[in-house]
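Next comes a concrete protein, fold included:
___
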Amino acid sequence: MEQCRAMLNQQFALAAASLVEYAEQQDADIVVLEDLTFTSGTLTECARGATEAAEWVLPAFREKAESVLRARGFQVERVTAEKTTQECHVCGQLAQVGKATIRCETEHCPVSRVCRDHSAAVSIAKRVF
């Protein structure tokens, strides 16, 4: 299990470093994350042999990413995740949700069809500003 924990720590560190690099390229001061509800978890759960990865992998990664971001001087904000993948990032209205896209049918909204993840990322960022 120690090998599992070491491997995950290494992968989390690489992913967090990529996140920092991206934020620096954007000249960002704040990184906004969805405040997803997880049961709990840290990498110690890996050592205990937890079989449900969702119980500890995402919380452990979020903890690592937030720690690295804060250590590099970024402010980390969490916002509610409610409807971020359904909401049009331009007009804020609920859109028609497809597998990978949303289609906004709100009159006078310039968005017709857009990547659901990209729209959600903009909607998440807008909740802080």
Helices lie at 2-25, 43-47, 57-71, 116-126. The chain has a mean pLDDT of 85. The CA atoms of residues 63 and 108 lie 41 Å apart.
